[in-house]
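Aim 2, interim progress: modelling of the magnesium ion-bound target.
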Amino acid sequence: MVPSSRSAIRIALAQEHGAPSSAPSKKPSEFFGADVFSMAVMRERLPRPVFARLRQAAREGRCLHEGDADIVASAMKDWAIEHGATHYTHWFQPMTGCTAEKHDAFLTPVVNAEGVTAVIHEFSGTLLIKGEPDASSFPSGGLRSTFEARGYTAWDPTSPAFLLENSRGKTLYIPSVFLSYTGESLDRKTPLLRSLQAVSTQALRILRLFGNTTATRVHAMVGAEQEYFLIDRRYYNLRNDLVLAGRTVFGARPGKGQELEDHYFGAITRRVIDFMAEVEERMLALGIPVRTRHNEVAPGQFELAPMFEPANIATDHNMLTMEILRMVAEKHGLACLLHEKPFAGVNGSGKHNNWSLCDSEGNNLLDPGSTPMNNAQFLVFLAAVLRAVHTSAKALRLGTVGAGNDHRLGANEAPPAILSVFLGEQLTSVIEGIASEKPCGSKESSWRAGMMEVGVSTLPPLPKDIADRNRTSPFAFTGNKFEFRAVGSSQSIAPANIALNAAMACALDDIATELEAALSNGKPMVLAVQEVLACMFRTHLPVVFNGNGYADEWQEQAAQRGLPNLKDSVTAIAAYTDPEVMDVFLRHGVLTERELLARQDILLENYIRALHIETKLTAEMGRSCLLPVAMRWQKTLGEMALAARTLCPEEDKGALPEETYYHLVRTHVIGLVRGLDALDACHARLDAMNGVLARAKAARDELKPRMDECRKHADALEILVDDAEWPLPKYTELLWQC
Ligand code: ADP
Ligand code: MG
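Predicted structure of the complex, ligand included:
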């Protein structure tokens, strides 16, 4: 018998000591990538010329030609079946924010006059390259009407296929793009691949100017740190808000929150470490190079981080990681919450998107390097980053929109919605010096008396640990990479990286064009670079901010500097159609105009849906779950107050505490009833409204404050009503029980 009430779960938890988990019999190095149809496996199983062409196609982000596809498909099928697979699926990332899959068996029926007489294992190149799910229910923002509902999935050979297990067998997952009948992108992967191509092309132009003739491609590299909460699944199942919306719409603050900061980097409990270990085993088998695990700031909050990888693979791997976290949690009797703000009053969760550019020869282009020319090239890439963030801030902000993330950004626990760049004092003084075309002073004179002549002198050694000196910046330079910290924990990192790569492609394009013009006018390279850098740094210094991003003064200062502050998702999404934002995506073909407009629509719809679900949950739980209990308690208190007045001696009959208590509860019961009525009325009004932007604005401005009003009364009642009667697990139980 599974205990289901709060008190039964509490008793059960106190008695449980957790079964010891069996350790894996193999070392990680022995099972790393075991479930991946990797390049190494392909090299082994494919004819040499086919493998060479496949690798080339993967490098250049192209499709395979049909003859090769048949051979690859057959090898992939054989490998998968040998490893226990029964089905395959094109695995894609529609605009829902989740992944999507539709499984087909590897079986082909043998049919004759008597019907199906046998089945054979078959998988052709055509099936590998193109799937055709009935895709009418995926959001398309008007790119596809239901009568032409066909969407196509196509294997993305830059990301390897892999196996996922269920209790009866395995399925082969084939990472895919998702396109409409007319070839428009309906997913997040297609524009990501296009953005990677764009940034590579423009970065190569710069490398060529610096005399590099050998690099063939520049890759954006990404390492995504993932935060999450874990709670006991029995409590989770008792809360519809957590099950359906991923966050609590009610819940009074616990007696103890995160104020002691004793959870951050604290000892990891047995139950959690068992969970983490299994998550890591599964990740490693799927070739996801997970390395780091620790307790985060809030109670019940944790983080994991893999090693960085090429951005498209890192994106797929992060989607997979979130899936693994959810699945393994369930197995361990836990629920993994990926929402940006599951609990009011304690920190929410984010995702730090660590990003850099690396050429095909393995050189990190954001690493200052050791020679003057390396330094000059680094400064050019640095200038491009500043230009990208400064001029494309609104486009970058779009990479972080979502109803959940609105609870975090700017709420003194996550960077503000203003995009600025943290460089640290030393690097800032270098670029200030270049901007003023004068030698600049450095506090630490570890390098020649502050002289920085581009292409002639070398940069001072930059401290690698500057990351930890500023946790409030949304975009921080951390030694040899940038950390974009505004992405939400539940979000795909694709939108952030699409915007980042697209913005970088534009900035690099501008800089390369200027340098090329100067060189063709006969200017020596060193001088051309010095001049372009001076101009770039002067123009874009306002985006550099090394101070406290949480401080109120920063909001004012940022406004004076002309930095946009798109405080909430609706405002940010509305800016999608600003010409300067559209240009970021249009210029190098990352998105077409039709795709852009469709995306704006989809993002607004997603926002509205999220708020409608929360509204309905608030109304439902408020009326059917909380009010009955609160009203019964009010009745009990009323009876107590009446008895007190009857029994109390005459001289004590002033203000009776029983009566005060009763009136307090009654006030909040009435407040909650009225709040819920107002919420319902508002919801009905919004449903009847036209125009997606108008509805999204109304959801933000009307539904949210009314939900907050309901919550205020419900949370007050939680503290006043008999604990034995309260129907929902409380924050203390949710946050401090694993
Ligand atoms: P922290 O941010 O805690 O200082 P690290 O700097 O070690 O930790 O790394 C955080 C994340 O950044 C990891 O996922 C790591 O792989 C990634 N990372 C490290 N170097 C790079 C790089 N050059 N490009 C992209 N990501 C990187
Ligand atoms: Mg970090």
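Residues 439-451 have pLDDT under 50 and may be disordered. Residues 221-223, 225, 305-308, 354-356, 364, 467, 478, 480-481 surround adenosine-5'-diphosphate (ligand 1) (CB under 6 Å).
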